Amino acid sequence: MVPLQLEGMPTWLESLFTSEFAFAVLLGLCILEGAMMLRFMPSELVVPSALALIGSSIPKTVAIVAIAVVGTTIGQFLLFRLVRRAGREYVIQKRWFPLTESRLERFDGWFDRWGGIAVAGSNTMLVVRGLLTIPAGLSEMDGRTFVALSALGSLSFQSILAALYLFGGYLLAL
Q: How many domains, the chain?
């Protein structure tokens, strides 16, 4: 069962995913994804690729989702701390970060309206995944609260991806 098209994945990454270092590679990718620095692979393909290449038994699926949640949460917390330390202007000026002033203002509004729950909610959505980390880092939100909300949203996102991959494979087998 391999419904995922892996042709677009860099061959070096595919070979690492199939090596004995697969779980460490997954953790590293997820940290990069959480910190919004994963540019060579869409975030919605990380868990399905891991399932396709590492395996999709129940224990492996649980391990892959757990590692993905831990990794993305670590990455987002690092970004949260960077934003807290460096400030708004730093984020806007950096080219590696996909956020304009107007877009940041929109996310500030979401954060002001919904509070911390917006962090968990944004981590579940594809297009805005993790972008509420910036307003959270600029706010007075406690780091522990941020980690809990980030992990909750990441658990939701990674579990949905895993379920879609597994269910999609089941449908293709019919």
A: 1
Residue 134 included in any domain: yes
Instruction: Give pTM, 2 decimals.
Output: 0.84
Within a domain: residue 43? yes
The radius of gyration computed from the CA coordinates of the chain, to the nearest angstrom, equals: 17
* Residue written as token pair 């330390």: 85
CA 111 to chain centre: 19
Task: Judge whether 65 and 71 are in contact, CB under 8 Å.
Answer: no
**Helix, strand, coil proportions of the chain in percent (round to 5)?**
70, 0, 30
- pLDDT per residue over 10-66, tens digit each? 676 667 777 788 899 899 999 999 998 877 777 788 899 899 888 889 999 999 999
Residue 2, domain member (yes or no): no
| Residue 5 is assigned to a structural domain of this protein | no
